[in-house]
Design goal:
This protein is mostly helical and 158 residues long. The chain has five helices and no strands.
Amino acid sequence: MEEISAENKSELEKRYRITTLIVAGQMTTTLVLAIVGWIYAGNSESAINSKSLIPLWIAVLFIGVGTFLLRRILFKWERLKDITLLKGFSGLFATLQTNSIILGSLAEAIAIIGFIIAVLNGSGADMLRTVAVALIVFFINFPRKSVWEKIAANMEKV
């Protein structure tokens, strides 16, 4: 692996640490929401027709697939190169941080929609399904330090 300069390394470390804390917080919020949704849905007497919840399930599907497509767009090499040339390495690390937080927020939105589905349907299993989708999105889009370092090392050559 290529080396990056010391000042860029310290900036990367700082931004990465903050980003992982925020994304871990989003994951924790998702798990807490899942527990609350599971408990509330189990005690709920309301049950709405499942056909009326189809738009919410479609939203979960579109957000889930959309995060993978958005990740490809946000981490595109040419885009990151342009950001580095315009804003420098500080701008690059801020962009990587923002991208990771946005993708985490979309995963959290899936969990919120799942909570709404579970409350309206009265089924804790629906909550578990959407939380599983949200956790898959979290784990695939979780920021990886090695990827950030590789991006920074390649950008120093530009």
